[in-house]
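Dear colleague,

As promised, here are the two records you asked about, laid out in our usual form so they can be pasted straight into your sheet.

NAME FIELD: protein one
SEQUENCE, THEN STRUCTURE:
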Amino acid sequence: MLSEEGFAAGMRAWANTVNELGADVCRRPDSRLRLSAELDRLCEFILREDNERFQWRLESDRDAQEAVRSLREASARALGALEKMRARQICAHGRSVDLYSSLLSASVREEREGMRLRRGDRVMFIGSGAFPASAFAIAETASEVLCVDIDEEAIRHGTELARYLGMKASFRFLRSHLDDPEFVSAATHVFIASLVPEKRDILRELRSYVRPDCRIVVRYGNGLKSLFNYPLDTGALTEWRAAAPGMTGRIYDTAILRSRTTAYEWQNSHFIASGT
């Protein structure tokens, strides 16, 4: 049982374990299994209600905050490594079409339906990773999905996986959300993954491009959820109208944002930004 006094030390030790397993995941199959189990254990820790007693440490203890930051960064790297390995294995060994169905978990379907996605929507997913399960679920409805990730290796694996699953026609990958401003301006939905750290900067950049009715779905995690997600101060998003979909029992939280910009202001800013 982790004590409140030992919280920071426990988080640092956990980060070291995850880092060690992550560094070895490509060389030893047992490390992959152990790393997956370790990340599962972290999710269980976050969702346990009796662990809320550590919340005050996260708010006031700088040592605890630094330890949590280390664990979050270790977990993000580890998850990225696992996703790349899983994508490689699927494409190399061949699986049945049931694999695609398994990606569309009940939770992802619930989120997709909550965002009012419809046939013909155009969706951008920022921070898609090498194994973009949510983006695959979204593509079941949307006419086009543009995945964005700064990791070129993740883009390579994600592109190959989309091709393997027969989704190449509706999927594209880019390194930056600003590489295709025309798509951003036409997008009906923009998803920002929980493991994207610079959410505020991205929202600031998107604001002059997105149309007024575009729904921006931001995944984040504050408090204990910041052990596995980058946090977000939703109260500081004064230029956006924010709503929460009310989903519970998740390892991350979700905010749905819409610009406070009027249609006239958007058209004028878009006119200037496009240089026309």
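NAME FIELD: protein two
SEQUENCE, THEN STRUCTURE:
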Amino acid sequence: MTSHTTPAGPAAGPRAARRRLIRELLLVAGFFTVYKAGRLLSTDRTDEALRNAARVWDAERFLHLPGEGAIQRLLVHGDALVTTANTYYAGVHFPATALFLVWLYVRRPAHYLWTRRVLAGLTGAALALHLSFPLAPPRLLDAARLIDTAQVYGPTVYKAAPAEDTLANQFAAMPSLHFGWALMLALGMIAATSSRWRFLWLLHPLLTLLVIVGTANHYWLDAAVAAVLLGAALLLIPKPRTSEPDPDRGARPGPDRGTGSEPGQDIPVRSLPRPRSAAAAVGAGR
């Protein structure tokens, strides 16, 4: 008689992997849809957003933070430089994060679960702050005397008048998820890889910080708050308890070679082998 712990057959693995992948895609897409819809709830709070912008601007001057205009003046020295910065702001944020998650899902499933949970926590906290503290970016604040580089030089992802923008909330400047996600990408790649060059991933959030400030889309404090919220999420959400084999350096020796475990995964029954595929590991770690 066949034991209930015996796999159903070779076809069960691919089918289960596809189901897990579809569930994961629906989960991420659903969360992102809720986030985007929630942000639009504060698009009509123009006066409040501008008052908050004035407060943030004054707070930065009180703290003697460098003016955002210093970075913008460096960018507008040449059309090519400022256009590149606008393109980076508009075109790198979502694709880079998506590719990062796909790579982790395929190559580092345990780190994928950890990263997805951290990003979800960061994004949820950001949404709550967007709704409770609408904030106009410095390009919309007269006291900042900054130009909207995207409108002047292109390309842009926003309409010139925030009230006419039905696809984006221009009053959700704090915290900056451009910076928060970029910082998590760098930290996630550092944690999931073992290359001696892995700390160069920190150049991505550094470049993102200069871009979001220089294009007048965010204040310095927007990035600082994003970093604090990310730090809180990292403290609350535990990292994977065991390291995964790095394909670039070969599997680590030992009895568990080629396997990995996820946070919260139960100790496996002896007759049931641990999942070996990336998709199977992701399914086991929910």
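A couple of things worth noting about protein two: Residues 27 and 178 are 21 Å apart (CA to CA). Residues 1-11, 251-281 have pLDDT under 50 and may be disordered.

Best,
R.
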